[in-house]
Structures are given as C-alpha cells and as structure tokens.
C-alpha cells in the first residue's frame, strides 16, 4: 500500500514537472508565434513594451516635417539581455509600427510632427533554434512578417526571401563587424536603448 502511494506520488510529480517544462518552453519562446504552424501575429500588448528607437521619414517634397514614423518596440527583458550579452535572445520580438503623421506649428517649433494613425507593422522574432524549417516566413535566425493595419493577426507577406531580405542586406554592412551573424540583418545601430551606458 505504502509502495503504491509512493509510486503514484512519483508519477504525479513527474507529470507535473513535465507539464511545467512544456509550459515553460512554449512561454519562454515567443507569445505571438503559433508553435504548430510558425504563423506570427502582432503581439497584443506591444505598445506597453519598451521603445528601441524611431525612424523619422522627412517629407522630401512640399512642406517640411515628417511624412511617416517607424517606431520599433521590443520586450523590456530583451533590452536587458542585449546590454548584457551584446545580442538578441531567443524569442526577442521586434515590432516596427508604421505611422502616418501631421505637421503643424506649435510653441516648440514651426514644423512639429506627431503621429496620427497606424498604417501597419513589420514583425521580427529571433529564433536561435531554427524551429520552422518548412516555413517561408522563417530563416536566417528570424521569423519575418508584415501586417496591414486592418489585420494584426494574419500576415500579408509570404516569403521573407522575396519580401524582406533584399532591403535588409544593407544592414549587414552597417552592423558592427563583431555583431551576431543573425543580428546583422537588423538596423540595430539606430537603437540607443541597446547601447551600454
Ligand atoms: C523597402 C525596404 C524594406 C523592406 C521591403 C523590408 N524592410 Fe524592414 N527595414 C528596412 C529599413 C531601412 C529599416 C530601418 C529604417 C526604417 O524603418 O526606415 C527596417 C527595419 C525593420 C524592423 C525594425 C528592426 C530592424 O531591423 O532594425 C523590422 C522589425 C523589420 N524591418 C521587419 C521587416 C520584415 C519582417 C520585412 C518583410 C516582411 C521587411 N522588414 C521588409 C527596410 C525594409
């Protein structure tokens, strides 16, 4: 009887720890990734994350001011990890939010621009394990997806090699020569938050 209780207890404990391990493994990767299909979505709460940096696109014709902003967000813990290790951790999510703008005269200046509306999102998810070998949205150390403003769940991109890589090639030349090979695909020189103080 006593043996039976011990056996059952061990079984329960083993199951529990296995379940916790699975839950942990999935949680520790990326909450915006469907682990079965590799589909990526815009993370729900990304506006509560930290801002890595902003790209301002100036009007090159007509009135002065910005015609678009690209604001890049990531999880706060990604910044902590990067500053300690000099690279992005597995599961790091970079969300680039595209914004329309309006420019006007304010007490701070003659042409002051502010964001008005979200136009869409580009999302990158760092994958150090090469998890989704079959998917055209994953490769070179990242998951790559583009979303229009009306649907943050379903990507409109189909193949990162044709939709993304060409435009991210220049980033490799601009990256620090010692940077992680996969991180060189990102324009991270623009993100002061990653630099050690
Ligand atoms: C027209 C060229 C172009 C295309 C196409 C493009 N990117 Fe980018 N991407 C850039 C540039 C340049 C930046 C940084 C400056 C900016 O946003 O203006 C950037 C920045 C990013 C960032 C912010 C992190 C970083 O790398 O600094 C993400 C996320 C991103 N791109 C994802 C994607 C994904 C995913 C795709 C494909 C679906 C894609 N991009 C396609 C040019 C491009």
Give an overview in words.
This protein is of the alpha+beta class. It has two domains: 1-30; 31-194, 3-Layer(bba) Sandwich (Chalcone isomerase), CATH 3.50.70.20. The protein is 26% helix and 30% strand. The chain has helices at 2-28, 76-85, 160-163, 165-174; strands at 50-58, 66-74, 93-106, 109-126, 138-139, 142-148. The chain has a six-stranded antiparallel beta sheet with strand order 1-2-3-4-6-5. A hairpin with a 2-residue loop joins β3 and β4 (109-126). The structure holds heme C.
Largest sheet, in brief, is: 6 strands, antiparallel
CATH topology of the largest domain: Chalcone isomerase
Q: Which residues sit in consecutive blocks of at least 5 with pLDDT less than 50?
A: none
Order of the strands making up the biggest sheet: 1-2-3-4-6-5
**Contiguous helical run count:** 4
Q: What is the overall pLDDT average?
A: 91
End-to-end C-alpha gap: 63 Å
Instruction: Using the CA coordinates, give the radius of gyration.
Output: 21 Å
Which kinds of small molecule does this entry bind, naming each only once? heme C
Helix content: 25-40%
Task: Tally the structural domains.
Answer: 2
| Shape annotation | elongated
- Care to count the β-strands? 6
Mind telling me which CATH architecture of the largest domain this is? 3-Layer(bba) Sandwich
Name of the CATH first level of the largest domain: Alpha Beta
The structure class reads alpha+beta
């Amino acid at each position: 009887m006593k043996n039976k209780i011990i056996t059952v207890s061990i079984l329960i404990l083993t199951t529990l720890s296995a379940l916790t391990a699975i839950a942990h493994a999935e949680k520790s990767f990326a909450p915006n990734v469907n682990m079965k299909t590799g589909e990526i979505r815009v993370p729900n709460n990304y506006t509560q994350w930290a801002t890595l940096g902003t790209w301002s696109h100036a009007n090159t014709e007509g009135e002065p001011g910005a015609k678009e902003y690209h604001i890049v967000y990531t999880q706060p813990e990604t910044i902590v990890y990067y500053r300690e290790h000099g690279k992005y951790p597995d599961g790091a999510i970079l969300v680039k939010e595209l914004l329309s703008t309006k420019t006007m005269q304010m007490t701070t200046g003659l042409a002051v621009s502010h964001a008005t509306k979200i136009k869409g999102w580009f999302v990158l998810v760092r994958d150090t394990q090469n998890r989704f070998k079959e998917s055209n949205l994953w490769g070179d150390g990242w998951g790559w997806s583009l979303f229009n403003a009306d649907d943050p769940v379903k990507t409109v991109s189909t193949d990162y090699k044709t939709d993304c890589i060409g435009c991210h090639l220049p980033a490799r030349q601009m990256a620090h020569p010692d940077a992680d090979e996969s991180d060189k695909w990102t324009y991270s020189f623009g993100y002061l938050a990653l630099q050690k103080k």
